[in-house]
Write a sequence for this structure.
């Protein structure tokens, strides 16, 4: 069974701050995390860009992203193997309108979650602790 992706939720999400990335951008996750299915948790992550990194990001992405404010990604985390992959990315303007949407539903690109990273914090928040 292949899950169907819907657009990233802008409202109705229960966003909670959990970390900063290496550029100082603020990271939030949607606390309404579903129960893992086959060891995989799907969670929405929101990155709110700081003014310091916005200039670099806008330069890299191009003129279309002049009013970029944040990005919401759907991330799958395979809890047993501590690996993750991005399934969709949606860029938003400061007014909340969508700049671009990209989906990677058919792509498998599992990557190890690095130690001492913001991804590791998200893994700890989303994956149920195993009983020893």
């Amino acid at each position: 069974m292949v899950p169907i992706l819907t657009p990233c939720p802008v409202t109705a999400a229960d966003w909670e701050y959990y970390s900063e990335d290496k550029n100082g951008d603020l990271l939030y996750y949607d606390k309404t995390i579903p129960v893992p299915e086959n060891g995989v948790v799907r969670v929405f992550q929101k990155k709110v860009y700081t003014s310091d990194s916005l200039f670099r990001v806008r330069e890299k992405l191009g003129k279309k992203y002049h009013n970029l404010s944040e990005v919401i990604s759907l991330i799958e985390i395979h809890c047993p193997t501590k690996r993750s992959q991005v399934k969709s990315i949606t860029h938003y303007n400061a007014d909340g309108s969508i700049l671009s949407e990209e989906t990677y539903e058919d792509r498998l690109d599992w990557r190890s979650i690095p130690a001492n990273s913001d991804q590791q914090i998200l893994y700890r928040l989303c994956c149920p602790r195993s009983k020893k």
About this structure: Confidence is low (pLDDT under 50) at residues 1-11. The helical segments are 51-61, 118-126. The chain has one domain: 15-126. The two ends are 31 Å apart (CA to CA).
